[in-house]
Structure formats: structure tokens, C-alpha cells
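User: Please run a holo structure prediction.
Assistant: Happy to. Please share the sequence and the ligand.
User: Here you go; the ligand is 5-O-phosphono-beta-D-ribofuranosylamine.
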Amino acid sequence: MDDFLASPDFEFGQRSLSRPSATLGILASGSGSNFETIVDAADGGILDDCRIAGLVCNEPDAACLQRARRLDVPHRVIDHRDFPDRTDFDTEVVDQLTSWSVDWVIMAGWMRIVTPAFIEAFHRRILNIHPSLLPSFPGAHAVADALEAGVRMTGCTVHIVTEDVDDGPIVAQAAVPVRSDDDVDSLQQRIHRAEHAIFPRAIAATIEAGGTPVE
Ligand code: GRF
């Protein structure tokens, strides 16, 4: 059985994409495997004409920071615990992204709810990846929730970020079959592989489409 099935527009070779030019800012809170995939795609892949301006991470010990050092990507820790509220935190993140001249924001495992002011600052130019087939299983425990529900198929979704959490126009999805012996780790690993396959192409297609859902 295949590990995953990507929505047709995003299967390799099914749709020719131009290589859009844009400056990307990445937000991550954890391991950063999606971040690394995007950096790789900007180095000879589908995002080759994009510039990765930098990574913002809100967790000082997150592994994505080690990846940023290894990959030589500018990075900054902005710890949300240093700010009195979400608005002040988001203002600092937006200021950093603006100072990097970012025109697209890519949430690659950003475990923070963003404020309306943030969304307004980058209106229709924020993409998120979520480890389920939205609108099923929004929230921070999507993989465990899918296992608990007993679904036989889950996956991942790339969507444009709007004010509602894990909502907003869907750009791409990949379906990942659930195996009878899966636990959260094994299922998460296969979802990650699907994410790495669709995320760079979904970013390229959305930039090419100017921030609207891809037809
Ligand atoms: C991914 O599963 C993504 O869908 C979710 O957070 C995880 C980040 O993984 N939002 P990584 O840090 O990119 O490895």
C-alpha cells in the first residue's frame, strides 16, 4: 500500500508549475523537518527562485534552530513567554518578518494561535500545514485524535491562514491510510513524508496563484 495519495494537482509531474519568485519567512516551534524541506526546495527545487529570509522560532530549545544553523538560514528566537499577551508577541514577530522584507509567511509547525493583526499584516499571504484532512481533527493533537476516532484514512492539509484556527481555504491535501498497528509515532512519520511531498509544491502553486486557493 502506498504511504499517501496527494491531491491530483500536487502529484509529481501532474501539473507544471513555474518557479515563483518571493521572499519567504518561516515560523516553526518544533523539529523543523518541514522547514528543512522548504529550504531544500529553495536550493534547486520548485522554490528555487524564492529567498528564505529567515526562521522565527518561539521555543529556545527547538530542534529547528539547529537545522537553521546547519543550513545557514538567519534565525531568531522570539519566546512568547517574554511578552504580556498575544498581541505584543505577534507584533514582534511581524516586525521581524517585515524587517526581513518577507512577502509570504510559511507556518511550518507553528504552535501559536495568531492574532487578527498578524493575519491582516500578511493578508492571504500566510500558509499553514496541519497533520489531518481538515476540516477533520483541527487542534494541537490531530494525529492522536484521528487514531482515537478510529478513522482508516487521515493525512495532511496545506491551507491559507484566516482568523479561525486550522480553517481557511484549502490549497492541497494528501491522504494517508491508517494501519491497524499504527501508534501516534508511526502514523506521524508517514504524515510527515506526505507533508514534505506536498508543502513546497503547494507553496509554489499558491504564490503563483497570488494567494487564492489553487483551482
Ligand atoms: C507537522 O506535522 C505539521 O503538520 C504540524 O506540526 C508538525 C511540524 O513538524 N503543524 P516539523 O517541525 O516540520 O517536523
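The chain is about 35% helix and 20% strand.
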